[in-house]
Specification:
6-stranded parallel beta sheet
């Protein structure tokens, strides 16, 4: 191996360790932050009530989930064909399609369009793919102002934070914290209520819709047979971000494809119910290209950037490509006992929670993000609640298997498990050690791993086989005594 390759390999290993260590440190801080836990618990409780009410309206939710799973299976197994069909139909409508292999390509293409239009300000609706490629800081480096128009995204942008949740970016904040933020930034009352804060945000953002030369959105779905972009929202900001600017750029992952328009009849209700508990979100829009000559509003030009950025790596994994079925409803985050304790910012990735734990190692590298697949109790709630039937907890186990097979686990850990396996297979050797010694050994080597605020479980003084032998001897003794008395 060349010297430069050795240096890069060592650097990558160090980066992997620090990413995992950072996760553990942040997790410990958030798990014992009572204020954070209280806010998160309150918001998730509200979600659970709405979710229960929403899912009860389905005549047969299990059947709907199975149908959605089959629909996504069909398009993911034939992804190349459906993407080409979407491209052909979208271009037929006057739109332009750009293929981006990675985040850098996507960023450069967006910049090229903006500079071509001579714009210095863009307005954005909520888009996880734009977060994924780090678009906002990139545009800022090129003196282009990017304004988030979704209220939650607008709030976290003011705080210079990443979104906390796939659906609810500011879930970690209570009304008091948001009122304080708006007071500091815009001079509103410290006691402002939710309506007053929303009205202030609307007042500020309306000016930006008119001033921005380019509007940027994500896509909830891409419909192949009509060449349409489907966007679902509750605030109307996506419609305003596309109605006023002369250019509309859509950044969408290649997995967002649906085969036909009729599929939205199933996927829109599933997304809204599992995302927020609603029957249907307030605004559901279809964009099939730039405005026609007879239309009064809408963009003069429309681009769709189809983003790969590691998705084909996941597609190549036959057992795990199921992760591409995800429709980003966020339901798995809301039911996950780990996420409920540590929140979204600890994951250090755009897609947090169970779904982030299964796809991030494939999108950003198994070595650096393998630890996320261990941030799970494997309770199966994420799988149970998934609207498209992704077997999430199985995917977590497959990621763990891959990390081991690719030798990404520490050598000491491998040796420890080899020793453990050997001992477990040699019952006589294991029984030589009494419970006191086992407890001492575990306290000595396992306490740090178990955590400062948890008590280690205690081994019994005798092993099961020792207890069994003792029980058998006592039974034989009692039987002999019984036999003597019987005579």
């Amino acid at each position: 191996m060349k010297q430069i390759d050795v240096i890069q390999s060592k650097t990558y290993r160090y980066m992997s360790q620090t990413t995992a260590q950072k996760f553990l440190k942040k997790s410990a801080e958030k798990a014992f932050d009572l204020k954070h836990r209280e806010i998160l618990s309150m918001n998730i409780n509200k979600y659970e009530q709405a979710f229960q009410k929403g899912t009860n309206r389905f005549h047969n939710l299990e059947n709907a989930t199975t149908k959605a799973n089959l629909a996504k299976w069909k398009v993911i197994e034939n992804l190349d064909r459906y993407l080409q069909e979407f491209e052909k139909n979208f271009q037929k409508n006057g739109g332009k399609v750009i293929w981006a292999n990675d985040a850098e390509e996507a960023r450069q293409q967006v910049l090229k369009i903006i500079q071509k239009k001579g714009a210095d300000k863009v307005v954005k609706s909520k888009s996880m793919t734009s977060e994924e490629i780090g678009l906002n800081p990139f545009l800022e480096e090129h003196s282009i102002e990017a304004i988030e128009s979704d209220l939650g995204e607008f709030i976290v942008q003011l705080l210079d934070q990443a979104p906390y949740h796939i659906v609810t970016p500011a879930m970690h904040l209570d009304l008091e914290a948001i009122a304080k933020l708006f007071h500091e930034k815009f001079g509103t009352s410290l006691k402002a209520n939710a309506e007053e804060i929303t009205m202030k945000a609307r007042e500020i953002l309306r000016k930006d819709y008119l001033a921005a030369g380019v509007g940027i959105t994500g896509a909830n779905f891409l419909v192949a047979d009509t060449g349409s972009v489907a966007i679902t929202e509750n605030e109307g900001n996506a419609r305003l971000s596309t109605a006023f600017p002369k250019t509309h750029i859509v950044i969408a992952g290649i997995e967002k494809i649906l085969a036909k328009m009729q599929d939205l009849d199933l996927f829109w209700p599933l997304l809204s119910t599992h995302g927020t508990g609603q029957n249907l979100t307030v605004y559901n829009s279809l964009f099939s290209g730039p405005k026609n000559e007879h239309e009064s509003d809408g963009p003069e030009e429309m681009y769709v950037i189809l983003l790969d950025n590691g998705r084909t790596e996941l597609l190549a994994e036959e057992e795990q490509r199921e992760g591409l079925y995800c429709i980003r409803c966020g339901a798995c985050l809301n039911v996950c006992p780990v996420y409920q304790n540590i929140g979204g910012h600890t994951y250090d990735t755009v897609y947090s929670g169970p779904i982030g734990s299964i796809i991030t190692p494939h999108l950003k590298g198994m070595e650096e993000f393998k630890h996320l697949s261990y941030a799970s109790s494997l309770c199966g709630k994420c799988t149970e609640v998934c609207p498209v039937g992704i077997n999430i907890h199985k995917m977590l186990l497959l990621n763990r298997r891959d990390a081991v097979e690719q030798n990404f686990q520490p050598k000491l850990e491998s040796k420890a498990w080899m020793a453990f396996t050997y001992l477990c297979q040699k019952r006589k050797i294991l029984d030589l050690f009494e419970g006191k010694f086992k407890n001492f050994f575990v306290r000595l080597f396992g306490k740090k791993m178990w955590g400062k605020k948890r008590e280690l479980p205690k081994f019994a003084e005798q092993s099961f086989s020792q207890q069994w032998k003792k029980k058998k001897k006592e039974e034989e003794k009692e039987k002999k005594l019984h036999d003597r008395h019987s005579r």
